[in-house]
């Protein structure tokens, strides 16, 4: 592993953010999603072997994969169908999709299969923890734990729900961070740190994340976990 200095990795992130492959809609979200600050908080380095869970349309994939392409390796698992075309693009050929391409709408997660890799430095997932019911979340956490090396980082971001609020239509894509911490610790992870990078004082946590008044400006928790040495 390289030294802890983030400078070289930061330059690669900045280069990826300026790449022509990113659409205007994607770059418009940079100010809100703060990828440079987020990835620095999680401790990303350009020589890491990393796994992105549920890459969706590839917003973070277009940043992560180029950063580690030379010295590390990018893997993706679960809900990877929308990045299949990205692998055909120059500079993204090293992307490896692993495990069964599970449809994330299968809420119980019973179809998750082992990720076929281990010894990873980092597993990341952005605004996806809410996609599953408890069984699915626990399965995902377990597989992430097994894929990481001792000391490896589990990096998780999601929309904030009020603590212990009963499920309702307004919080269906939000997650109580205390619940997430409890479940992830029960998978064997150690809590490392919490960041307020994505804290939004004007998100009253009263509305579903797609509602016009909060979409693109939701309060999100950003939490770093570690697999014990």
Quick structural summary:
The protein is α/β, with parallel strands linked by helices and 229 residues long. It contains 7 helices and 7 strands. The protein has one domain: 3-Layer(aba) Sandwich (Rossmann fold).
Structure description:
The protein is α/β, with parallel strands linked by helices and 229 residues long. It has one domain (7-226): Rossmann fold (3-Layer(aba) Sandwich), CATH 3.40.50. The protein has helices spanning 7-17, 24-27, 30-33, 35-42, 61-68, 134-147, 177-186, and strands spanning 49-53, 73-77, 96-97, 120-126, 148-159, 190-195, 220-226. Strands 3-2-1-4-5-7-6 form a 7-stranded mixed β-sheet. The longest helix has 14 residues, at 134-147. The chain is globular, with a radius of gyration of 17 Å. The two termini are 16 Å apart.
């Amino acid at each position: 592993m390289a030294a802890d200095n983030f400078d070289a990795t930061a330059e690669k992130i900045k280069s990826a953010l300026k790449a022509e492959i990113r659409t205007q809609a994607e770059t418009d979200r940079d100010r809100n999603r703060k990828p440079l600050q987020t990835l620095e908080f999680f401790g990303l380095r350009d020589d890491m072997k990393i796994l992105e869970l549920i890459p969706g349309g590839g917003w973070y994939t277009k940043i992560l994969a180029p950063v580690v392409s030379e010295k590390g390796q990018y893997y993706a698992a679960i809900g990877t169908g929308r990045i299949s075309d990205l692998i055909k693009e120059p500079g993204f050929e090293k992307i490896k999709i692993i495990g069964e391409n599970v449809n994330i709408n299968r809420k119980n997660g019973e179809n998750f299969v082992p990720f076929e890799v281990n010894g990873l430095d980092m597993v990341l997932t952005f605004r996806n923890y809410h996609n599953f019911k408890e069984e699915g979340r626990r399965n995902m956490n377990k597989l992430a734990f097994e894929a990481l090396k001792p000391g490896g980082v589990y990096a998780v971001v999601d929309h904030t729900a009020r603590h212990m609020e009963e499920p309702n239509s307004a919080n269906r894509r939000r997650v109580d961070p205390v619940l997430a911490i409890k479940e992830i610790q029960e998978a064997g992870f150690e809590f490392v740190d919490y960041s307020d990078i994505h804290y939004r004082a004007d998100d009253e946590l009263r509305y579903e994340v797609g509602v016009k008044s909060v979409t693109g400006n939701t309060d999100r928790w950003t939490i770093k976990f570690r697999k014990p040495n």
